[in-house]
């Protein structure tokens, strides 16, 4: 269950909640044509019909509702002179574009975590022929004293620490791919010898690069090409070669 499956119906818009912000950005829908009260009421009715509360869905809904509320509040403020009005409109458009991009990135992370989360908990079997007979030994992914929740917490600290100027950098100015970042991280870890601190992989990175870096770490862990180690309950996280 995701935001895409939550449909809303208003006088001006009917469709997936997931596409609402995009409709506003493309000027297919005015912000004042959106009733947050009706949307919220519909959302609660939607939840009542669900047997289990999907926290991912709830967080996505709250994020988008907060963005809509912010945009709406800016529109009802007193308008200054024409020049400042144009600046205000440009600012709102930039804010909306930024929120849409952040939402897209968080959505990608949430989907990856849904996929990887179950995978990290699985136990795999490998075979040895030490005594001429095949025997099974249970092994796990290379996580040492660190759970996926701790990894996500570390990622959130990195995300929150990104300066606003880099956070607003336009997506089209960036050129970074997942395979490229996987190769770069692998090379960095090998050159470090004893491993590299989790936070060091994100230094001077934009938010898009931060997201791609985190997904690269998850992919490398899935392939069992790295070890993710934490020094104690509150220690730092280190990425090492497997």
TrEMBL record:
Pfam families in the cross-refs? SMC_ScpA (PF02616)
Identify the keywords attached in UniProt to this record, alphabetized. Chromosome partition
Output the GO biological process annotations, alphabetical, semicolon-separated: chromosome segregation
Q: Which InterPro entries match?
A: ScpA, ScpA-like_C
Superkingdom, according to UniProt? Bacteria
Q: Which PANTHER family match?
A: SEGREGATION AND CONDENSATION PROTEIN A
Mind telling me what this protein is named?
Segregation and condensation protein A
């Amino acid at each position: 269950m995701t935001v895409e499956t939550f449909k809303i119906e208003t006088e001006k818009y009917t469709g997936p909640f997931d596409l609402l912000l995009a409709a506003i950005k493309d000027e297919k829908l005015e912000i004042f044509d959106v009733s947050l009260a009706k949307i919220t009421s519909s959302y609660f009715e939607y939840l009542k019909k669900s047997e289990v509360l999907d926290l991912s869905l709830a967080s996505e809904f709250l994020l988008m509702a907060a963005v809509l509320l912010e945009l709406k509040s800016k529109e009802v403020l007193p308008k200054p002179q024409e020049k400042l009005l144009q600046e205000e409109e440009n600012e709102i458009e930039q804010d909306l574009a930024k929120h849409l991009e952040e939402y897209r990135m968080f959505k990608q992370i949430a989907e990856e975590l849904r996929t990887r989360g179950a995978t990290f908990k699985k136990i795999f079997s490998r075979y040895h022929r030490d005594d001429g007979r095949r025997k099974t030994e249970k092994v796990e992914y290379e996580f040492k004293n660190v759970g996926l929740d701790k990894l996500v917490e570390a990622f959130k600290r990195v995300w929150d620490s990104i300066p606003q100027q880099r956070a607003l950098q336009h997506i089209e100015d960036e050129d970074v791919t997942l395979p490229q970042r996987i190769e770069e991280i692998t090379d960095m870890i090998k050159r470090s010898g004893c491993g590299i601190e989790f936070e060091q992989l994100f230094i001077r990175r934009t938010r898009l690069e931060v997201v791609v870096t985190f997904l690269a770490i998850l992919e490398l862990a899935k392939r069992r090409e790295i070890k993710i180690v934490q020094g104690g309950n509150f220690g730092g996280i280190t990425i090492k070669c497997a």
